[in-house]
Design goal:
Number of strands of chain A: 15
CATH superfamily of the largest domain in chain A: Aldolase class I
CATH superfamily of the largest domain in chain B: P-loop containing nucleotide triphosphate hydrolases
Number of strands of chain B: 33
Distance between the termini of chain B: 56 Å
CATH architecture of the largest domain in chain B: 3-Layer(aba) Sandwich
CATH class of the largest domain in chain A: Alpha Beta
Helix content of chain B: 25-40%
Oligomer: heterodimer
Number of helices of chain A: 16
Strand order of the largest sheet of chain B: 11-10-16-7-8-15-12-13
């Protein structure tokens, strides 16, 4: 058995958010056809010899699917691939798409972790973001999830939003903390091409907070959440002890993963490949060839080393020197001798006997660190 | 070589950029069958890509044509091409000296420009017969009578019989050829006298070595003859002589009146200086031909490889360019900011641009250029005088008694409605008006006494932008004058960046200092810490700007699938950073070095 992280993509949303550049579409009418294709792709994993130690059903908004659809998807999954007994099985959800019945079904089908997108605790900000829900929707859905028995919940927040000030974000954090989620992700907003925000930005209509304020929000979050006992374990992620996202740790530890569904990425045998991002292309390709791979790329040893470091350095614990040696049979301090020396001197990186890790300053300038590891 | 000297005509073409010199030359070659239509690449005379693009002829070349005239006789016509830019006026004068006549080509809609005028005067000084030609008569805006009137009024030539042509359409070409035969006198000189050959150009050929383009004034030259360069006394044995047909074609001899080339296993073009006289080593002429002058660089700048590891390539490339460009000067120099590079000397700003562009295009080098400087004569308190063309060598102010800077007489020709603007610009450039002459009711020539340093800074650009391109400029070095110059330093976080220093007139130092610090603030990206940009004279700070510290540079989110995309972002950032220069702890982009070069 070969241990992997499994990702399943559901590229549908009731409405695309104004900041979102993910592979997600509002063409809900394609769901039935898409699910057929997705199930076909899943079923092709029979006898593949993979053991999923984590499953992540992401989107889009996977919870736009009906109970029946969710049932048949999860059913197909259990039939086709060996899922470890203690596997972490996460589904992404947005407030407004959750009901007690749906949550109960998910729970009975083995889903043991919920990742809910709240983003902000002010309805005015939610509106700016183009979210379909209110803060109250979140509160209700969250309580329902708890009552159904979900004891591992992540909530996503975004800071650095248009017209958001540090106090708004602190209120959001305090509001969320009252619910005691096991995991909180705090992402800095980045304005990506092809989004509504990007358009507004070009037109000068996006009033983003200053970099100083944006950093204040980030630094406040670290202080508030760690004081509340959360472990700041990745640049943007906080967890109660033991509740770190195991699936995301697969990525950050540069382990193997398989992605299914339109546009999903995989990393196996030092090759990276991905499916057609277009829903129709994906469906057509699965129907015709039973596979929808659009591109395969072999990762050179030099690139593997770089990616290993770039991903690993995202973790606050740092990059394990022994893990690097185990994987590449080289000393990381030799391979990246001069960049490491330079970054330590710049105060961006620190080194102890087992790890190389970002300093507090390094968290704000992580790109400068990552860059030095590129070939 | 059966055509006797009486039927040889040596001539050149004088024209302003874009007035149609190259096209006219093409038509002459076609008409005489020197080149068949099919072989005809547009504009044969401009060989370098750069010349085609810029529409200027940088290096003179020559070509010979056989023309059967209306009188039934065959004539040998040698067309000597001349560079059309002010930087190369000495080369032009030598090309003219090799001719007995010149075609003065004037655009029927534009009229005479300053450069044309200067070259026509040069031709008249050399006693050339001038044939006025009004070109581009096919254009709807053509005003040939106006152009004729200008030729008569400005130059004082009878232009009533000026030939009307459209080189583009092939009109009037035969008339031009007949005029060349009838009006231009055959060359004088005697084949029996000791050899005197005027070098009017040269090129470097990897097989033949340095090849001199010559006009034989007296005597005869043959292969295996021992020749002597009269300026240096160096002797060489002729390996090959020939004519331009238009490619080089060996012949048995060249005699008085003829134009051709001489190869003599000469290793470097510095031994085939334009204007020098070639004579016979065993039977030398008593006197060299008049007018020889060693080309002296007037403008200097530092050239550095954008990436340090390109130093050797830059050195090799400059060496190769110098093989065919005797007026290019370079020597190694070191800058604390830019590392290893070269101090380069040029005839002028265009020459500098051309060299830079050739380095970038033909040798694929990425070059950082420091602010161009003229040569200042600095007399120190101890009575010694030094030449300074590099701010780095500017002495401590307390050691300076006085400074002199080169001055030129600048002639600017402009439509009357822009006279105000031109006067304003010239005043800003520390110019003093010498005279102003109305050419006719529409055009004026203004003559200014002006420091050369102001011309190389941005006079061209200013003139162009503020007269909508109508002003044309010519200048001539007149000598040195005392000036109150200072060295302006730029400091980043308290450290002087040597490559950004320059020498400037005291009255301009404040505004230039302010302008440059502002400009640098725009181009220096925010860094992890605040960057102070200061301009200083001596120890005194005269301007200051601050680049605020960067607060963050981080990808908030990166999962498995993202990594390819995110890596591309990082690579782009890294690429941008690689192009930066590290000055102390400050990252400086290449644009920063441009900031001191130009006002806009």
């Amino acid at each position: 058995m070969r241990t992997i992280g499994l990702y399943i993509h559901v590229p549908f949303c009731i409405k695309k958010c104004n900041y979102c550049d993910f592979n997600s579409f509002e063409t809900l009418e394609l769901i039935p056809e898409y699910l057929e294709a997705l199930k076909k792709e899943i079923s092709s994993l029979k006898n593949s010899g993979y053991e999923a130690k984590t499953v992540y059903i992401g989107g889009g908004t996977p919870t736009v699917l009906t109970e029946q659809q969710l049932f048949s998807l999860l059913n197909q999954l259990h039939k086709s691939i060996y899922i470890a007994k203690d596997a972490e099985i996460t589904i992404e959800a947005n407030p407004g798409t959750l009901t007690g019945e749906k949550l109960y079904l998910l729970k009975t089908m083995g889903v043991n972790r919920l990742s809910i997108g709240l983003q902000a605790s002010q309805n005015s900000l939610l509106e700016t973001l183009g979210r379909i829900h209110t803060v109250e929707d979140f509160e209700n859905n969250y309580k329902t999830a708890r009552s159904v028995g979900f004891d591992n919940i992540n909530v996503d927040l975004i800071f650095g939003l248009p017209d958001q000030d540090p106090e708004d974000f602190e209120k959001t954090l305090r509001h969320l903390l009252a619910f005691s989620p096991e995991h909180i992700s705090c992402y800095a907003l980045s304005v990506e091409k092809g989004t509504v925000f990007y358009q507004w930005h070009k037109e000068g209509r996006l009033h983003l907070p200053s970099d100083e304020d944006e950093r204040r929000m980030y630094h406040n979050a670290i202080e508030i959440l760690t004081n509340k006992g959360y472990n700041h374990y990745e640049i943007s992620n906080f967890a109660s002890p033991g509740r770190e996202s195991r699936h995301n740790l697969v990525y950050w530890s540069y382990e193997e993963y398989l992605g299914l569904g339109a546009g999903a990425h995989s990393f196996l045998d030092n090759k990276r490949f991905y499916n057609h991002p277009s829903i129709l292309e994906y469906i057509k390709s699965i129907e015709t060839f039973s596979t929808a791979i659009a591109n395969i790329q072999s990762i050179s040893e030099k690139d593997q080393e770089a990616e290993f470091c770039i991903m690993g350095l995202r973790l606050l614990e740092g990059l394990s020197k022994s893990a690097f040696k185990q994987r590449f049979h080289k000393e990381i301090t030799q391979v990246y001798k001069s960049p490491i020396k330079k970054l330590i001197k710049q105060g961006l990186l620190q080194e102890n006997s087992e790890h190389l890790r970002l300093t507090a300053l390094g968290l704000d300038f992580a790109n400068l660190v990552f860059m030095e590891f590129l070939p | 070589m059966s055509i006797p000297r009486e039927r040889i005509r040596n001539f050149c073409i004088i024209a302003h950029i874009d007035h149609g010199k190259s096209t006219l030359a093409d038509r002459l070659l076609e008409y005489t069958g020197t080149i068949s239509d099919r072989k005809m690449e547009e504009q044969v005379l401009d060989k370098m890509d750069l010349e085609k693009e810029r529409g200027i002829t940088i290096k003179a070349k020559a070509v010979r044509m056989i023309y059967k005239a209306d009188d039934g006789q065959e004539y040998l016509l040698n067309l000597i091409d001349t560079p059309g830019h002010v930087d190369f006026s000495y080369e032009v004068s030598r090309s003219l000296a090799a001719c007995e006549g010149a075609l003065l080509v004037v655009d029927a809609s534009q009229g005479i420009e300053a450069q044309t005028l200067a070259n026509t005067y040069l031709a008249l000084e050399n006693n050339l017969e001038i044939i006025p030609i009004i070109n581009k008569i096919d254009l709807p805006s053509a005003a040939p009578d106006e152009a004729k009137r200008e030729i008569e009024e400005i130059i004082g030539l009878d232009a009533q019989d000026a030939i009307l042509t459209s080189a583009k359409e092939g009109l009037g070409i035969k008339e031009v050829l007949e005029a060349i035969v009838k009006q231009i006198p055959p060359p004088k000189g005697s084949s029996d006298k000791p050899l005197r050959a005027l070098i009017f150009d040269s090129l470097y050929d990897s097989y033949k070595g340095a090849v001199a383009f010559v006009r034989i004034i007296d005597g005869t030259i043959r292969p295996r003859q021992l020749i002597k360069m009269m300026s240096t006394g160096k002797t060489f044995e002729v390996t090959e002589i020939g004519v331009f047909n238009p490619d080089m074609q060996p012949v048995d001899y060249l005699e008085a009146g003829q134009v051709g080339y001489v190869a003599a296993s000469i290793k470097n073009v510095t031994d085939t200086r334009v204007g020098d006289t070639i004579t016979d080593a065993q039977n030398p002429a008593k006197e060299p031909l008049p007018g020889y002058r060693k080309a002296v660089p007037m403008v200097f700048c530092g050239m550095y490889p954008a990436e340090g590891e390109e130093y050797e390539n830059l050195k090799e490339a400059l060496g190769k360019l110098q093989l065919s460009d005797a007026s290019l000067f370079f020597e190694p120099e070191t800058s604390a900011a830019l590392g290893f590079g070269f101090r380069c000397g040029f005839l002028g700003l265009l020459h500098m641009d051309v060299v830079q562009e050739r380095l970038e295009r033909e040798y694929n080098l990425n070059i950082i250029t420091t602010a161009p400087s003229v040569v200042y004569k600095i007399t120190k308190t101890d009575g010694t005088t030094i030449d300074v063309d590099n701010p780095t060598n500017f002495p401590d102010p307390v050691e300076i008694d006085y400074i002199e800077e080169p001055y030129v007489e600048a002639s600017i020709m402009v439509p009357t409605e822009f006279v105000g603007q031109v006067m304003e610009i010239c005043q800003e450039k520390r110019g003093t008006m010498k005279d102003m002459e109305y050419v006719n009711e529409k055009r004026v020539i203004l003559r200014y006494d002006m420091p050369l340093s102001e011309i190389i800074y941005d006079l061209f650009d200013q003139l162009k932008s503020r007269t909508r391109g109508y002003a044309s400029l010519d200048y001539e070095l007149t000598g040195y004058k005392k000036s109150d110059m200072v060295k302006l330093d730029i400091l980043l976080n308290g450290e002087i960046v040597d490559a950004l220093s320059f020498i400037v007139h005291k009255d301009k130092a404040y505004s230039r200092g302010r302008h440059i610090t502002e400009k640098l603030k725009e181009v220096i990206p925010r860094q992890m810490f605040e960057v102070a940009i200061q301009a200083a004279i001596g120890g005194k700070i005269i301007a200051r700007e601050t680049v605020r510290a960067l607060r963050k540079n981080v990808l908030a989110k990166c999962y498995g699938g993202d990594i390819t995309r995110k890596k591309k972002l990082l690579e782009k950032q890294k690429e941008g950073k690689k192009r930066m220069r590290q000055i102390g702890n400050v990252q400086l982009p290449q644009e920063a070095f441009m900031a001191v070069l130009k006002m806009e």
